[in-house]
Amino acid sequence: MKQKIRDSGMKLMPFRRVIVFALHLLLAAAAFTVAFLLRFDFDPSQIPDHHGSGFWIICPLAILLKLIALQYFEANRGLWRYAGISDLLTIAKACAVSSVLLILVVVIFYGHGFPRSVHIVDFLLSVVFFGGLRFASRLFRESLRPSIRRNSGKPTLIIGAGDVGEIALRSLTKGSPGSYQVLGFLDDDPEKQGKLMHGFQILGKVSDLPSLVREYEISEVLIAFSSVSKKFIREVVESCSGQNVGFHIMPPMKSYMSGELNVESIRKVKVEDLLGRDPVKLDRALVEGLLAGKRVMITGAGGSIGAEISRQVASFSPEKIIMVDFAESALFETDFELQEQFPEIESVANIVNVRNQNDLEKTFSENHPHCVFHAAAYKHVSLMEQHPSNAVCTNVLGTRNVVEAAVAHKVEKFVLISTDKAVKPSNVMGATKRLCELVVARQSSEHTQFGSVRFGNVLGSNGSVIPIFEKQISKGGPVRVTDPEMTRYFMTIPEAVELVLQTSAIAESNDVYVLDMGNPVKIIDLARNMIELSGMVVDEDIKIEIIGARPGEKIHEELITYGEDLLPTSVKKIKLLRKTGNAPGGDGFENNLRKLEELGLKRKDEEVKQLLWQMIAEDQSSA
To answer: What is the torsion angle, in degrees rounded to the nearest 10, for the CA atoms of residue 395, residue 398, residue 399 and residue 401?
Structure first.
């Protein structure tokens, strides 16, 4: 019976405004009429003729003023199912204003002949009638609520009432009894509305989530689909902004097939799920032709990008992986992981500083790599502003050393990992990476194909904004944002590396390639998302503090600059960069590079910066 009433109510929803208007009109008329009759003890014979005729003029005016006041004070905007004291106060204000206006009109045009008590009683009855309508609606709706199973766990809604939703229900109810209190499902399939799954009701559509979160005081939402887009996850999370809700998502389908699924497999929604794009389809055949059975060297293998390159390269069955890094702890972690996950692949870890030509020469001579991915670099903008000589020696001269070793040992393919900070650089780090691109672009070898890959920030890399925000949130805030308008391009590490590998397969002619980074993201929005994904409310539980941009930081990053164009390639998310001008002249560039090396090794920071910016200016003037 309750379900039939709910279904009937749903059919009337398109006419809600008309119904509300009609009810308000009737109640406004009823309040004034009752107030008028009460003045004469409900005895029509006691009503003087001039008051009777006045009633038919003043009553419509009273109704009109009440309806206008209710609209002006937005008394109709609130959801009646949540009617409370604030709604009653809004109604009282609207009725008070309409009553005062009515009294003024009556006094001006009708004199003092109309009973003043009618206005007072009309005001009181209007508040009671309009408020009573809302509270009656709330009580009626609550009486129709589906019966909910109660326990001491977190009130939880499952989005998706299909096979995966059923698996999710079973995992939560059996795998963690008492931890979660499943209240029901949401699903957009109209045929499932109001139905039951194992005794739990489909309470509505996904668009009903915000209201149901408030109504049932939900603290956890589980997204349960076999596959779900980033856009959908983002919309679900944003719809519950400011409501102290935690979000979880079911693991990939392979977990169900292998029987490994348990409640611990259900993971929290991460910021990567909101900012990342839907997975790029890796052309494995294209990359396999480059890497299978080959010896592959990765410099900077201990870093976020280098480690992921090592992992993904291992999946293509290379003959050998040669990992190079100067940070021994990070290199050990990558090497250990590769030996655990790919025991059949030969891998070696070499503690080598790319500044040291002799160590590099020895590493190349011992391993004879076919392919080199050069990811070793200093990347922290503010730190490199303080240490420009180190930035130049590692980034620029280190790249030159690796390039020269690759040419000397007839490496087949060399790929430089670059950054969007190389575009119109405003800091030392970006300037050094632009010179790295120029070093690679100027190489000439009949045996080696060179290429550079330029992309923006990667989500979750060591020392990046996401781990920093996570630490600040875990400490209770504040989350520190440099500028409210600052934006950055973001990409997940696996997606960036997949595109790097595909770029390596198509790279030729010393070109620079630019990865499609999607749309830039405001850092302050990233901070808000991370706070809310932690189940907290921005500015209530954790505050955001604006601290101002650090030295060398841009407000907005770019992927190309003046005089550069992007051309399509055979891979959808990879663009070929074409520069309309020419690179700086040969002898001048080489002479400056040697001078830069000399100044860097002597730690003459100011002179290093001066020459560095001179070389960047020459590059930009050649566009």
So the answer is: 170
Task: Say if CB 132 and CB 139 are below 8 A apart.
Answer: no
| Count of domains observed in the chain | 3
pLDDT value, residue 119: 86
Cα distance from N-terminal residue to C-terminal residue, the chain = 76
Active site (catalytic) residues: 421
Is the residue at 567 inside a domain?
yes
Contact 578, 564 (CB under 8 A): yes
Domain boundary among 109, 143, 177: 143
Q: What is the pLDDT of residue 512?
A: 86
Asked if residue 391 belongs to a domain, the reply is yes
**3-class state of residue 223 by DSSP:** strand
In whole angstroms, give the CA distance from residue 31 to residue 14. 28
The lowest-confidence range among 81-85, 334-338, 428-432 is 81-85
Q: Which string of DSSP letters, residue by residue, matches 54-122?
A: HHHHHHHHHHHHHHHHHHHTTTTSS-GGG--HHHHHHHHHHHHHHHHHHHHHHHHHHTT-S-HHHHHHH
Domain boundary among 123, 143, 163: 143
Residue 82 makes CB contacts below 8 A (sequence gap 6+) with 138, 214, 215
Measured on CA atoms in the order 227, 233, 239, 245, is the torsion positive or negative? positive
Q: Are strands 346-351 and 449-454 parallel, antiparallel or unpaired?
A: unpaired
User: Do 416 and 501 belong to one domain?
Assistant: yes
Residue 415 has pLDDT above 80, yes or no: yes
Answer yes or no: do 78 and 118 share one domain: yes
Beta partners for residue 568, in sequence order: 575
Residue 171 lies in a domain: yes
Q: Is residue 478 part of a domain?
A: no
Strands (DSSP E) found in 254-330: 267-268, 295-299, 320-325
Mean per-residue pLDDT for 83-107?
84
246-286 per-position pLDDT tens digit: 888 887 655 554 445 555 567 888 877 777 566 667 778 88
Residue 314 shares a structural domain with residue 240: no
Domain shared by 57 and 138, yes or no: yes
Give dist(CA 590, CA 596) in Å, integer: 10
**What average pLDDT is seen over the chain?**
82
What is the CATH classification number for the domain harbouring 230?
A: 3.40.50.720
Domain range enclosing 18: 2-143
Query: Do 216 and 360 lie in a common domain?
Result: no
pLDDT at 344 exceeding the cut of 90: yes
Rounded distance between C-alpha atoms, residue 359 and residue 458, angstroms: 30
